[in-house]
Amino acid sequence: MSAAGPVIPDFGTVSSCVRDNGLFCADWFGQNWSSVFWPALVQHIELTVTALGIGFVLAFALALVAHFKHWLVRPLGGLTSFLYTIPPLALFTLLVPVTGLSVLTAEIALVGYTLMVLFKSTLTGLGEVPKEVRRAGEGMGLTRREILVRIELPLALPAIVGGLRVATVTTISVVEVAAFIINEGLGAPIIQGLQSPFNTQFIGAGVLAVALALAADGLLVLVGRLLTPWAATRRIV
Fold first, then answer.
1. 3-state SS, one letter per residue, for the chain
2. Do residues 156 and 125 make contact, with C-beta atoms less than 8 angstroms apart?
3. Residue 226 pLDDT more than 80?
4. What are the tens digits of pLDDT across the range 148-173?
């Protein structure tokens, strides 16, 4: 029997691009948008937003505690850094025996990867507030809590938003790896596409993941500018 080349799955009546396995077949992508790509994109966004929401609350709380209790900076920073250094697939594998092949497993790992960036950016932003500004607040009779809410947090916003941008892009990329344990997100069609010789499926999903990361980053830049218009003015000056 003679050796045969790669066999393209039978898609029925198809275009020449699909038949010849072109680099990217826009017609096939459009036909499968609602059944393959759109559901995967929605799942990807849901997984990302959930991880970022939980991670931000945890990291923000830890950063506030470390800001008031400076001796906790090293141990909390070390813990978040340790979680960040574990390779994603290895962390998923370690969690599977405990929480199974589930969304919970994916979210625990995803949250862990957000903590270091969000913790350090929040703590750095709070720490960079000039001492003179704090003293001015004290001179005005503000309590420690009022100084935090009315002075330190507003001035720390650019750093916090910057950390959120990094955490968002990182999480979007790690969600793709989560498809090895849950059949959700844009990683699922990427993996399925890589298992066949058909290019369009994994290229389309990959392009969507890149577009999602760029869109999310751009949105956060806009939010940051709206929340801190004075920061842009200060840079111009």
1. CCCCCCCCCCCCCCCHHHHCCCCCCHHHHHHCHHHHHHHHHHHHHHHHHHHHHHHHHHHHHHHHHHHHCHHHHHHHHHHHHHHHHCCHHHHHHHHHHHHCCCHHHHHHHHHHHHHHHHHHHHHHHHHCCCHHHHHHHHHCCCCHHHHHHHHHHHHHHHHHHHHHHHHHHHHHHHHHHHHHCCCCCCHHHHHHHHCCCCHHHHHHHHHHHHHHHHHHHHHHHHHHHHHCHHHHHHHHC
2. yes
3. yes
4. 888 888 889 999 999 999 999 999 99
Which tens digit of pLDDT belongs to each residue from 53-72?
A: 999 999 999 999 999 998 99
CA–CA separation, 35 and 88 (whole Å): 28
CATH topology assigned to domain 35-225: MetI-like fold (1.10.3720)
How would you label 133-155 residue by residue, b for 16+ Cβ within 10 Å and e otherwise? ebeebeeeebeeeebbeebbbeb
Q: What does pLDDT average to over the chain?
A: 86
Which tens digit of pLDDT belongs to each residue from 85-96? 988 888 888 898
Determine the average pLDDT of the residues in 75-85. 92
How much of the chain exceeds pLDDT 90, in percent?
A: 45
CB 103 within 8 A of CB 47: yes
Domain locations in the chain?
Answer: 35-225
